[in-house]
């Protein structure tokens, strides 16, 4: 059920230090892309062999691997000359070996970079984050966010993307490209620089995406962005700064996070987690309508749910297994969407799934 292979050519690139002679892979990768999330520490544990086996024995063909994690750490130790050396952590002890393994197995490598949620940078430079009279602001989960209005924060994250390209990743996936959830309810209590864009959150996030795509263009690397599924079905999610159309027209791939467990009643479905097929089908119809209005729409590659949302409480969730995962994939396919990514935070994916169940 695989389509024709997409041929990628070897390109030698030279740019300003510290990124010299970046060589992109010559081996073609399969399409459409069907991937799984892999947290960085698991690349150096026995579970990674299981994940390789899963991909090699099925129609999966890609891995999304943390390069800048949810705390703001770089997940490998870069060159001592790198400006990111001090934030490196040895979760991926040998990046070259990892990339060679992925290449040998013809697995498409996607670097996940968590952008504006960043405890490390916020603690390092409080001028780049939000503050209260008591210090650095944190959300209810204890996370700090950097300020999307600041170009210094943009360049910092794009530099990390360049580090990922340098070690061999073929796609940069920016996540948390947004302001904190419900930011509009707390912003007046916070101290931060909002002079740029006259405080327009949507303008700041949209321009970051455009700017990042422009800066990464010389590296012949694809750029993707994760967005809230809800940002697609409303004109724009102004509170977090996400406008689906603005983002989609400046990326190669758009990855909406459409986990059924993350929705309230919508598309005539009162309890979406109980009806994964209909939830995904309803979402895909709306997304297709928005994308077809663009002159050059990106590839749609949504994030699907491969976990059980027991926190929703009895009667509001179901145990997700083979059928529930396949139902989501099948629903996308009926709407002409054949690429997707599967999320499980611990990388414990459901066994025996048919990843092309149509």
What report would you give on this structure?
The chain has a domain at 12-257: TIM Barrel (Alpha-Beta Barrel). The protein has nine helices and 13 strands. The chain has helices at 47-56, 95-104, 119-124, 151-167, 201-216, 230-233, 244-248, 276-291, 322-334, and strands at 12-13, 22-23, 34-38, 62-68, 108-114, 131-132, 135-136, 171-175, 222-228, 253-257, 299-300, 303-305, 340-343. The strands form three sheets. Strands 11-10-9-8-5-4-3-13-12 form a nine-stranded parallel β-sheet. A two-stranded antiparallel sheet has the order 1-2. Strands 6-7 form a two-stranded antiparallel sheet. The longest helix has 17 residues, at 151-167. The N and C termini lie close together (9 Å). Mean pLDDT is 93; it is low at 1-26.
Features:
single chain, 358 residues, alpha/beta, TIM Barrel, two-stranded antiparallel sheet, 9 helices, 13 strands, 15% strand
The total beta strand count reads: 13
Query: In order across it, which strands form the biggest sheet?
Result: 11-10-9-8-5-4-3-13-12
* CATH fold descriptor of the domain at 12-257: TIM Barrel
The separation of the N and C termini measures 9 Å
Question: Largest beta sheet, briefly?
Answer: 9 strands, parallel
Structural class: alpha/beta
Q: What is the element layout, followed by pairings?
A:
Layout: E1 12-13, E2 22-23, E3 34-38, H1 47-56, E4 62-68, H2 95-104, E5 108-114, H3 119-124, E6 131-132, E7 135-136, H4 151-167, E8 171-175, H5 201-216, E9 222-228, H6 230-233, H7 244-248, E10 253-257, H8 276-291, E11 299-300, E12 303-305, H9 322-334, E13 340-343
Parallel strand pairs: 3-4, 3-13, 4-5, 5-8, 8-9, 9-10, 10-11, 12-13
Antiparallel strand pairs: 1-2, 6-7
